[in-house]
Specification:
The structure holds 2 protein chains of 2 kinds.
Chain A lengths: L4 E9 L2 E6 L3 E6 L1 H10 L5 E5 L8 H11 L6 E4 L5 H10 L3 E4 L1 H5 L2 H10 L4 E10 L2 E6 L4 E6 H11 L3 E6 L11 H10 L4 E4 L5 H9 L5 E4 L1 H4 L5 H10 L7
Parallel strand pairs in A: 1-4, 1-12, 4-5, 5-6, 6-7, 7-10, 10-11, 11-12
Antiparallel strand pairs in A: 1-2, 2-3, 7-8, 8-9
Chain B lengths: L4 E4 L7 H10 L5 E4 L2 H6 L2 E4 L5 H10 L3 H10 L2 E4 L1 H4 L4 E2 L4 E2 L6 E5 L17 E6 L1 E2 L14 E6 L1 E5 L5 E6 L3 E8 L2 E4 L7 H13 L4 H9 L5
Parallel strand pairs in B: 1-2, 1-3, 3-4, 4-14, 5-7
Antiparallel strand pairs in B: 5-6, 7-11, 8-10, 9-12, 12-13, 13-14
Classes of the chains: A alpha/beta, B alpha/beta.
Chain lengths: ~250, ~230
């Protein structure tokens, strides 16, 4: 039976893994290659790297990191952050990424999703959707959650699937960093609206939240960062917990 | 000098992961990613990967003049098909109503929307993406050291249906059983991605780079012992 996936996420800036605490202060969480190696050994099903480097000067650092990780970690690697063109997609794939995440640029230029999927296949195009509840629905935000788009998140998810996204990484901006669990209603609304797999993200504070994301949120995979980085829980521990709660995992 | 292993590049997706994984299991061998028919013809072993859509794959194979050298390699040397590189070995794909290489009898079909529900009635997503159990239906040198039911990483929306069960080397469930590995002569082909399947995947690739098809039979012939 197909296993539900656990995906640790590494936010990388200037060659280091960092984690924002309360959205402002960035705390150093270590060397990305070393962390990737550790998660792989603990049974991570995939790894996601989010390049949050602010200046273009240091953009190439992520390529060297991906090259180093891809030479020794043989599980799917997703890389996102600052992807604007098909050439950016190609650069990341050539460095060893298996999937590329597109977020803000998908909103500014939806054709990029189609062009990249046509060129490299849907299986390597992950569209990241940052969403916030606004009134009785959810709206898509860009630029790390700072810019409202007016787009309805469920409709946007359907459109991205139609254009060729192979998977959606759905982050609740309301929950991100709160440790209060995924926005299950949002996750379920989008997962049920599209045929492609959904990765739930934003808000994980304990292992029960991972179980809820799959059971209640109908997610196909769950992504978390801080609970793994600071050693609160191990990836292997998370998988055992999910298995005890009746979820199919790869152990 | 001819390459030990040629990874066929016909412009369909990213072959970096495949070549890196093979270099990892065969550090002493020369691995080349190539679209040059002469290099493929001279290589000791051939890996035939592929991502994307079947019509594009067939078009790109022909645009590069690779059809004959792929067919020749599949007949003459250890040959590993991966994902789309497995599907296009068959006769026909439902994807874009595409005539494929026809090396293996059978067809390629899409996961049918009406069947995609689990036992509890929940909708199953297509593509079939993630780690699923692979059940070995026949002993084969490429399964050596890999546990029955081991999980491999999949990502695909179409699956192969061989005409003869004799071709099947492994199957998986989503939600019904489908063929995910086939073997005949010096061809072994898999729907999943060994290059992304961690230890199990590295074991399979390691088995491939040392596999000598036909050696078992030859040894049997010489000893005169009956081969079961």
């Amino acid at each position: 039976m197909l296993a539900k996936r656990i995906i640790p996420c590494l936010d990388v800036t200037d060659g280091r893994v960092v984690k924002g605490v309360n959205f402002v202060e960035l705390k150093d969480a270590g060397d990305p290659v070393e962390i990737a190696r550790r998660y792989n050994e603990a049974g991570a099903d995939e790894l996601t790297f989010l390049d949050i480097t602010a200046t273009s000067d240091n953009r190439d650092l992520i390529l060297h990191i991906i090259e180093a990780v891809a030479s020794e970690v043989f599980i799917p690697l997703t890389v996102g952050g600052g992807v604007r063109t098909v050439a950016d997609v190609q650069r990341l794939l050539n460095a060893g990424a298996d999937k590329v995440g597109i977020n803000t640029s998908a909103v500014l230029n939806p054709q990029l999703v189609k062009d990249a999927a046509d060129r490299y296949g849907s299986q390597c195009i992950v569209v990241a959707i940052d969403s916030k509840r606004v009134g009785d629905h959810w709206e898509v935000f860009t630029h790390g959650g700072r810019t409202a788009t007016g787009l309805d998140a469920v409709e946007w998810a359907k459109k991205m699937a139609q254009l060729g996204a192979g998977e959606l990484l759905l982050t609740s901006m309301d929950r991100d960093g709160t440790k209060s669990g995924f926005d299950l209603e949002l996750t379920r609304a989008i997962s049920d609206a599209v045929d492609i797999p959904i990765i739930a993200s934003g808000g994980v504070g304990n292992l029960q939240h991972l179980v809820d994301g799959i059971r209640e949120g109908h997610a196909d995979a769950v992504l978390a960062a801080s609970i793994f980085h600071f050693g609160e829980y191990g990836v292997d521990e998370a998988k055992r917990y999910m298995k005890q709660h009746g979820i199919e995992v790869r152990l | 000098m001819s390459a030990d292993i040629a990874v066929v590049d016909y412009g369909m997706g990213n072959l970096r992961s495949v070549s890196k994984a093979i270099e990892h299991v065969a550090p002493a061998m020369t691995v080349v990613v190539t679209s040059d028919p002469a290099v493929i013809a001279q290589a000791g072993r051939v890996v035939f990967p592929g991502q994307g859509a079947a019509p594009d794959c067939m078009r790109e194979i022909d645009a590069r003049g690779l059809r004959q050298v792929i067919i020749d390699a599949a007949h003459s040397k250890p040959f590993l098909g991966i994902c789309m590189g497995m599907q296009v070995l068959f006769e026909h794909s439902e994807e874009g109503d595409t005539t494929c290489l026809g090396l293996l009898p059978g067809t390629v079909q899409r996961f049918p929307a009406e069947a995609m529900f689990d036992a509890e009635g929940n909708k199953l997503k297509v593509p079939h993406m993630g780690w699923n159990n692979v059940h070995q239906t026949a002993a084969h040198p490429l399964w050596a050291g890999i546990e029955e039911g081991e999980r491999f990483y999949f990502v695909h929306s179409y699956f192969v249906q061989p005409d003869s069960p004799d071709l099947i080397a492994g199957f998986s469930h989503y939600p019904f059983p489908f063929t995910c590995a086939v073997a005949t002569g010096n061809i072994f082909a898999v729907q999943f991605h060994p290059e992304k399947s961690q230890n199990a995947g590295m074991a399979l690739l390691g088995n491939f780079v040392t596999w000598n098809p036909g050696e078992g039979e030859a040894a049997c012939d010489m000893s005169g012992a009956a081969c079961a």
